[in-house]
Amino acid sequence: MTAGLFAAFAAVLAGAFIQGASGMGFALIVVPVLALVHPQAIPGALLFLMLPLNAYVAWRERSAVDRRGTAWITAGRFVGTFAGLGILLVLSTYWLNQFVGISTLLAVLASVLAPSFTPGRNAFIATGLVTGITETATGIGGPPLALVYQHAPVATLRSTVALCFLVGEVISVVVLGLSGSLAWSHLSYALLCVPALLLGMALSHLVHHRLDQRRLRLGVLLFATVSGIAVMAAG
Alpha-carbon torsion 29, 35, 37, 41, what sign? Predict the structure, then answer.
C-alpha cells in the first residue's frame, strides 16, 4: 500500500467514524487529505463513499428526521448543484485546491461564530443553495447543514443532515455524470477505500450514543483548520 493510499484509508476511517457518531466531519476530514495525496479523486470518489455512509446514518435514526427542513434544503441544493458544477469545470487543480482550502476555513469560522437561532424556510433554502455549490465542487457540504441544525437534538442533526446529504449526493452524481465530470477511476478509488469506510461506520455504531458531542465537534474543527491551511500551502 502506498503512503498516499494509506493516508486516504486513515482519513476515510476517521471521517466515517466521526460523521457516524456526530453527524458531520467526513468531508472536512477526507477532502483535504485527498486534495494532498490524490486530488483527481475529488469530488467523484468522495461522493461515491458518502452515499452508503449517509444512507446508513439516516436509516439508523430515521424516526428523528426533520422532513420539512429536508424538503426545503433539497430545493435549494438542486439549484446550487449547477453553480458548483460550473466552478468544477472552470477551475484548474491548483485553484480548486485553493477553493477547497478557503471553503474549509470559512466553514470552520462560520461554525465557531454562528449565533443561536431557530431556522425557518429561508434559512433552509439558503443552506441547501450553499451546500449544493460547495459539495458539488469540492465534496464539502456538511458545515452549512450542521450550522442550521446545531441547536436541534443530536439525533435530529445526525439523521436529517445524513438524509439531506444522501438526496443531494444523488443529485450531484447524476449532474456530474451527465456533464462528463465523473470517471471509472473515481469509482475504483472509492471501492479501494470501502473497507475503511465500513470499519468507521461499525465503530460509530458502538459509540454514537455515548460520545461528548461538544468535544468531538471541536476536534473536527481543529483538524479541518489545519488541513485547510495545508491544502492551500501545497497548492
Answer: positive
Cis peptide before 144 (omega within 30 of 0): no
User: In the prediction, which pLDDT does 108 show?
Assistant: 75
Backbone angles phi, psi at 208, to 5 degrees: -60, -25
Q: Could you tell me the three cell numbers for 33?
A: 487529505
Closest CA to 224 of 4, 18, 9: 18
The position carrying cell 478509488 is 189
State the Cα–Cα distance between residues 58 and 70, nearest whole angstrom. Answer: 12
Q: How far apart are CA 205 and CA 191, in angstroms?
A: 21
Buried b (16+ CB within 10 A) or exposed e, 12-34: bbbbbbbbbbbbbbbbbbbbbbb
Please check the confidence at residue 235 and state whether its pLDDT lies above 70: no
Q: What is the pLDDT of residue 220?
A: 64
pTM for the predicted model, two decimal places: 0.75
Lookup result for grid cell 485547510: 228
CB 15 within 8 A of CB 30: yes
Cis peptide bond prior to 43, omega within 30° of 0: yes
Predicted confidence band of residue 73 (pLDDT cuts 50, 70, 90): very high
pLDDT at 114: 67
